[in-house]
Every structure is written in structure tokens, then in C-alpha cells.
Amino acid sequence: MIDFLDAIRFDMIWNYKELFIRGLWITLSLTAVGYVGGIILGLFLGIGKLSKIKWIYYPAKYYVDFFRGTPLLVQILLIHLAVIPSIFGHSLGYFVSGATALMLNCAAYNAEIIRAGIQSIEKGQMEAARSLGMPQGEAMRFIILPQAFRRMIPPLGNELIALLKDSSLVTVIAANDLLYAGKVVAGAYARFWEPYITVAILYLLLTWVFTKVIAYVERRYSNSYIPSQRRRIFTFGRASAGG
Amino acid sequence: MIKIQGLHKSFGKLEVLRGIDCEISEKEVVCVIGPSGSGKSTFLRCINLLEEVTKGSVYIDGVKINSKDTDINEIRKEVGMVFQQFNLFPHMNVLDNITIAPKRIRKMHEVEANDLAYQLLEKVGLRDKASAYPEQLSGGQMQRVAIARALAMKPKVMLFDEPTSALDPEMVKEVLDVMKQLAKEGMTMVVVTHEMGFAREMGDRVLFMDEGVIMEEGTPSEVFGQPKSVRTQDFLSKVL
Ligand SMILES: Nc1ncnc2c1ncn2[C@@H]1O[C@H](COP(=O)(O)OP(=O)(O)OP(=O)(O)O)[C@@H](O)[C@H]1O
Ligand SMILES: [Mg+2]
User: Fold this and answer.
1) For residue A131, what is the DSSP state?
2) Residues 6+ away with beta carbon under 8 Å from A36
3) What is the side-by-side order of every strand in the sheet holding B63-64?
């Protein structure tokens, strides 16, 4: 064991630290863009899947079925090598392809979460809103979604962590993400322990931080609507945005 | 002011309303009684189209509401509804519960809406609860807020679906008192209720529903005093 530790050369990681920092940055950016886009698109898809109108329901349903029913890796390759070049005539770079694929994929999973969240709100809430003369859209926006989002926090949090890890798949299109940094170092030194352990530890660190943040948000939002608690949530929101 | 003709309502194969004709005039208080599953709620919910009407027509102030050309949101502004389960919006405080519809739907200004809300809270005896959240209120208080919320749209008619059935017995009175007050002020009301005392005291007319039809109707003293049909007699003997 001592021999083994002696043999480990973390200096080679240090030499490539810029690559890892850049990788972290790319991974976080891809996750952020994919997640935010995935929530917005997922909201429309989730509501679409609740629609009684066939030409809204079926496209939403088939979209979700496709992106949940095929591997993300295949989606990334399809988008990078086929879809984007066909539309634009050339590649738009790994970031656009990667973020698009992650967003489209994440949206499909979020759509199911959002649909279930909306459905979990008692029917009486929508009925009360409609009985006051609110159109469907307003009732959704002001009455249903604010309640439903609280219930969506835990599964949407899981989705964020899943997306962070799944973002490593963009390595196949030579995105300079965290895993790619490990691959480059592994290639340069023909050693595998150090770079991949480093990559693993960095992912673990990220998921650990995300888990903590999600748990915090979850705790704050889970119990009660009473404002003394809500004020603390906002304080937390500003603090985290500033720091 | 409300005219219902040949109203039928089916859920799939289940025929819940089987031909209802009924007229309700302004300032009238109509109480609907009947056994569970007889279609009372469905009947009420057809009046503001929370249920789609299968056959027949519902007119409010001469406008056929179950027609394609009618904007249902316009109709619902004029028809308030109070639910058995209150259905307050739990993420808003009492004031916002009451003002959201006037502000968003009637385009009322904040100050005006708040004034109106405080007036209504005064009326239902909850002025001091304006900033409370629904989860901080008792059932009776929640239902009184729900009544205030419906009244904030200044409706012409109020529909009540068993407003006291989900309440602990000691809270029934506070809600009934608010409803009595409303009736005295001349509000047109359709009240589905198991509170025979309320029906007898406040009802201008009582409808007894059974198996999707109005089996018997008349003044409270007619329906409670000398019920004509056997079904009515049977029902009353169980609940009185
Ligand atoms: N959305 C629905 N889908 C299918 N069946 C329904 C629906 N709503 C009501 N029903 C059925 O219609 C019948 C009448 O229901 P309704 O709620 O109008 O009765 P009610 O007289 O209000 O009874 P209660 O006193 O129990 O409230 C019942 O058999 C009920 O199961
Ligand atoms: Mg009922």
C-alpha cells in the first residue's frame, strides 16, 4: 500500500490543473444551460402532456417517449453529427451540441416530473380558481404552479444531479469537460489511476455540493407557506447568488 | 335569473342528472337536499359549468351559458361558488386569497381590492386574519374566508356545495350565520346542504333531489311539513 501511494504522481495532475479547472467550468456550464433550458422546455412539455387537445398532447408525448427511450449518448452523437450540420451546414462546436442534447434530454425527464407535480395538486384548487372566472392559463400560473413547484423540488433536484453526471457523455464529441481533462492527462502520461481518480473526486465534490444545496432548498420549502420561513429562503437565495 | 331546462348530465354511461327543469329568481334562496349520490353537486356544478352539460340548457340572465359562443369566464365572474373543502389557496395569505381574482380578473387596483377585502373580512368576522395563511385557520374560519373570496368578485348568484359538511360541529354555526346574513341582504343563493335547520329557516324554496331528478319542490313548510312523495318522506325520516 505504501509503495502504491509512493508510486502515485499527483504532480502530473498539478501540471494540468488549468485543464481540470476549465473542465470543471465546462461541465458546470453545460449542466447549467441544459438544466435551465430543460426546465423551461419541460414545463411546456409537461403541460402539453396534460392537454386534452390531441395535437398538443401527442407531440409532447412522443417527444418525451423518444428522449427517455433512447440513450443520451446516441442523442448527443445524432445532434452533433447529424442534426446540427444538416440544419446549419456545419458544426456549431461541441458546446452548442452538448448543451442542446443535455437540454432536450433533461426536458423530457423534467416534463414527467412537472406533469406529475401539477397532477398532484388537488382538483379543487383549479376548480376554485376557475369558479372565480380565472382562465386556465392564469389559474395554472398563479394557483397551480406555485404549489406544484414545491412538490417538484426533490425530483427536480435528483434530475440536476443526474444531469451533472450525464454531462460527462459529451466527452465523446471532444467537449473539453471534466472527464475530457482526465482523458487528456491519461493519454499524455499513459497512466490511469491519477487522472480518473481526480475526475471522480471532482465529480463527487460537485454532487456533494449540489446535494447540500438541494437539501437546503427542500427543507426550506417543504413544510409550510408561512412567511417567517419564507423570508429565510430569500436570504439564502441572495447569499448563494452573491457568494 | 337562472333558468334550467331539460338538464341531463352523464359521466360516460352513468346518467347522473336525468332531466332537470328549474327556475331561480333574483334574491331567492333555494336549498337543495337529497341523499348522497343523487346528483346535487353535479347539478350545482352545471350552473357554473365546472361540469360540462350533456343535454339541455342553462340560462343566466337570459344568456345560454352552455353554448359555444358564451365566454364561460365572463359567466363565472357573476357566479360565486363555495366548496365543501374550502379550496383556499394555501400559498397565499387571506388577503391575497380574496384579492387575486378582483385584481387579475376584474382589473381592480390594489388599494381598491384591499379595501374591498377588508370590508368582506369585516363582514365574515375575520378582519384580524388578513395576513394569516390558510393553514393557520380553523375550518370554520377557512370557509368564511372562502365565502369572502367568492363575494369579492361581486357575483349575482352564490352557489354553496355542502359548505358546512367538512366542519367540526362547533364551527357550523359561524358559517351558517354568515350565510344567513348574506341571504338577508338579498343575495341569490343556491345551497346544497344537509343542514335541514338552515333550509327550513332560510330557504324560500326547497328542492328534493333523488336519482338525478327533482323529486319534489316547494316551500320549506310544504316539503318538510307535508312531503308528497314517499322518497321524500323516507329521506326526511332519516335525516330529521
Ligand atoms: N367526475 C365524475 N366522474 C364520474 N362519476 C361522477 C363524477 N362526479 C360525480 N360522479 C357520480 O355522479 C353521481 C352523483 O354525484 P354527486 O356528487 O352529484 O352527488 P351528490 O348528490 O352531491 O352526493 P353527496 O351528497 O355525496 O355529495 C355519483 O354516483 C357520483 O359517483
Ligand atoms: Mg355532493
Assistant:
1) H
2) none
3) B14-24, B2-11, B55-60, B63-64
| CB nearest B81 (choices: A122, A131, A146) | A131
**Do residues B185 and A167 make contact, with C-beta atoms less than 8 angstroms apart?**
no
Q: How far is the CA of B225 from the centre of ligand 2 (A)?
A: 25
Per-residue confidence (pLDDT) for residue B233, from 0 to 100: 94
Mean pLDDT of the region B163-168: 95
Q: Model's pTM, two decimal places?
A: 0.87
Q: Which residue has the cell 440513450?
A: A71
For residues A8 and B222, what is the distance between their CA atoms, to the nearest angstrom? 97
* Interface ipTM: 0.94
C-alpha to C-alpha distance for B89 and B63, rounded to whole angstroms: 31
- Give residue B110's pLDDT: 96
Helical ranges in chain B per DSSP H: 40-47, 72-77, 94-104, 110-123, 139-151, 169-184, 196-202, 220, 230-239
* Ligand having the closest approach to the CA of B40: 1
How far, in Å, are A154, A158, A239 from residue A236 at the CA level?
A: 18, 20, 5
Residue A97 C-alpha from the chain's centroid: 15
Residues of B in contact with A130 (CB under 8 A): 50, 76
B108 sits in the region (left: phi over 0; alpha: psi -120 to 50; else beta) called beta
